[in-house]
Design a protein that fits this description.
Rossmann fold; eight-stranded mixed beta sheet; 8 strands; 31% helix; Methylase; SAM-dependent_MTases_sf
Length: 261
């Protein structure tokens, strides 16, 4: 086969590392996956272990019983190690950003695969992945911490980025701006004065400090009240499926990509 596009990642992974993203995808895009027969989902760059792809498969099967998940990894040794864990609806193949699958996927999850590239390459690979999507498909691309307690991801359709989501484990951060190191590669170097993403973190930290008294009722209540306050000056999603107390209580916050682009 032609050499896969991309470079081998460190391969760091672990149980439940991507749980926050999985449950967000299931809640927000379960309907999309049910809208077609046997929807194809690609997990790109799953790393040294099959486990996060297997977890994605089991979680999506709860909302779309006929979903087909393909784990794509550039390292042939990692693919060989994952093969024994295949089952109906779950397969592992060698490949890269070219996505060597037989039909356009409805959803592509690409986590922790763009950190090693420069910003121009990240934009280029976004474009390549978007061109591979089903006409109604989406790309979820982001980065998380080693244990998955802090994560940021962007969601794109075949035309452009649409939303950005921040997620954190309660008690796993001192202030919202602690999420900055997890920004997508296309944003992380923009977190400097004069750019929208920097203003967002400044305002979010200020709202977090203002809502400190609510910590007496638990960090979850402080997060929810902070989201309410921030939504007065930023276009925070405040209604389902991506916003409002239902999502905020899970440690999430979603905004339109245009707010930080």
């Amino acid at each position: 086969m032609r050499r896969p596009v991309g470079e081998i990642t460190r391969g760091t992974t672990g149980h439940n590392r991507l749980r926050r993203t999985d449950r967000w995808i299931a809640a927000g895009y379960g309907g999309l996956l049910r809208s077609v027969a046997e929807p194809l989902v690609v997990d790109l760059g799953y790393g040294a272990s099959h486990i996060t792809t297997y977890e994605l498969f089991t979680r999506l099967r709860r909302v779309a019983g006929d979903v087909q998940v393909v784990g794509v990894e550039i390292d042939p040794a990692r693919v060989a190690a994952a093969k024994p864990f295949e089952r109906p609806g779950l397969t592992f193949i060698r490949g890269g950003f070219e996505l060597p699958v037989t039909r356009p996927p409805m959803l592509v999850r690409a986590f922790n695969v763009l950190r090693q590239y420069g910003e121009p390459e990240a934009w280029r690979y976004w474009e390549m992945l978007r061109q591979s999507l089903h006409p109604r498909g989406i790309l979820v691309e982001g980065t998380c911490s080693e244990a998955g307690h802090r994560a940021v991801w962007a969601t794109l359709d075949e035309k452009s980025p649409k939303i950005i989501t921040f997620a954190a484990r309660f008690g796993g951060l001192d202030r919202p701006s602690d999420l900055a190191p997890r920004l997508p590669k296309t944003l992380i170097h923009r977190n400097i004065p004069g750019h929208p993403i920097n203003r967002l973190f400044a305002d979010w930290d200020r709202a977090w400090a203002t809502c400190a008294p609510f910590a007496a009722y638990g960090i979850r209540q402080r997060w929810i009240r902070t989201a309410h306050l921030l939504s007065q000056t930023w276009p925070v999603h405040t209604t389902p499926p991506f916003g409002g107390p239902t999502r905020w209580r899970l440690g999430e916050l979603t905004l339109p990509w245009s707010a930080v682009a």
